[in-house]
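pasting for ref. prot 1 ->
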Amino acid sequence: MPKEGVKLTEKPHLLTTEEIIKIARLFVKEGVSKIRLTGGEPTVRKDLPDIIFSLKQIEGLKTVAITTNGLVLTKQLVALQKAGLDIINVSLDTLVAEKYEKITRRKGWNRVIMGIDLALQLGYNPVKVNCVVMKDFNEDEIVDFVRFTKDRRVDIRFIEYMPFTGNKWEVDKLIPYKSMLKVIHAVWPDFHPLDNAPNDTSKNERE
């Protein structure tokens, strides 16, 4: 979270529920079978359950997913599941509460973990956790994140630090994918690649 905060989009400029469904129908008509709701943060929309329910009624759409910061999953996830939510990705860049507060500028790490645990209890298997790896911030937690998968049915998705407006990207903060693998293989030499589908955007490995 930038120090100056983030300017929120004014409501008149946001898509309505009906507009989202109309656009989704056009995509599905052209062959899209999976839609992911991201953001920003999708859970700030009060109509999120309605959006998910309406999407699930579209013939030909097989999967509805969300990527969320996880802060309100304990309050919303039951309703989202009833609406038909298929897949959950939670963005979490650290397993240390103090570091979480530093990068997000708010408390809430425990709530995110509770949200992940609730998702598992509700049968989401696996829950996918997105972690952006940055030098001098969380590269020392790569092994801890892998160990996190030993205790919970989660898939950790390590993401290279990428530039976008407002994140003050610096190449010195970049930890390349191969460097992450080297750290993991030093602890678990038997980690090996899994087969990936042609449209996969990630490279999968397991012990």
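and prot 2 ->
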Amino acid sequence: MTNTSADQLVQWSRDHILPSGMPLGPFAKNGPPKAAITAEAHRISMTDVNGNTNIAGSSSAVNVNLGYSNPELAQAAYDQLIKMGNGGFTPGGGSSASIEYAHALAQVTPDHINRFMFVHSGSEGNDSAYKIARYYWTMQGKPNKYKIISRKMAYHGLTIGSMYATDGDAFRKNYGPELPGYVQIPAVHCYHCPFNKTYPGCNFECAESLADAIEKEDADTVAAFVAEPIYGVAGTLIPPAEYLPKIRAICDQYDVLYIDDEVMTGFGRTGKYFATEHWDVKADLLIMSKGMTGAQLPLAGVGIADNIFDGMSGKQAFVHFHSTGGHPACCAVGIKVLEIMKRDNLVHNSAVLGERLLNGINQMTDHPHIADAHGLGLFAGFEIIKDKDTATSYDPALAIPRKFTEATSKRGLGVRASVSTGRIQVAPPLVSTADDIDKIVEIMQAALADMQLD
């Protein structure tokens, strides 16, 4: 857009931006590092204002599925904007683009999910799903079913509602009293089992803890359980195959809705359109976002199971809307994303290249400090561990994962670190090639050697 100098951008950022995730005092004094300001991005690479280019090994926030600056998506947005930039707001109506997108979306979501509400982000999608769940139970004559159960290590967003389903004091402190009606159960993490059990010789205490929590809270007060099918922000942690089917059964047993948060895992990321397809688990509400537009424009949605919509239907209105929810340009891009994914067979590409990526990471586990490799499709992760024999993690204060990402960045690769779990997440765009995957693995291996952890 402009040729503003790097120094000027740092100054303007320092003077005008409220940053997220960093101390405000130092930022107000120094501004961001130049390496944190992106100047341009193409296909699977990003270039900062210093001119340094890195492979986007985690697709920014695991959302740039179809590559950066995709010209087909840009054209779809342009064509829609010059046709109709905003369709206005009419209760019960919508733009032709949003209706066409809803129809196209119903062709790829699970068979029982055919109705959608569009918002702007995964956080809003979570907030909206919780609201839908509570409304459903009110329409069923059970207005006291309002509580939302989530899990430790979960991430469901940072709006004032969704952040209480998210785990971690860093996300929730300093914002006043906690909202009532949120409950958390232990994580599913076999390598560091919170119950000190060993899979498969356990009794799935992680899943059974949901039943325990529902009984403790009283099933007549619990609206829904929400979970990422695969932990995302925690660093790509895949549950045992039996876990989600057991969760679904427990929800059915206690008459609790199951909300599937596929913000990060949806739209081919795991080698299936949606991750729950790996375990044939059907959700009552499906939250989606990142991959909907390949992160080219802000769009999110909640898919509603047919029986849930039927249970909501009556003479009362469900009052929930946004001035730009389901924006025509965003929906036009969403339609084009679905066309490209089908044409280029990108879900299959994710599955095939995901095996290649996981094989490369598994080779890295020969290193004494690399363990617990997980991967489905182009959604992989591993832990940098202090002691494999005892599964002893590094002290989070040492920030070892962040030091690993600094080492990869010096060699031209950006990947995500979770300091709290000690894990590295690797999730390149779905348009990556075999050569791209090999290069990513090669850089990670070299960066590991650079760290000299032994």
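The chain has two domains: 33-62+345-451, 72-343.
The first strand starts at residue 38 and ends at 42.
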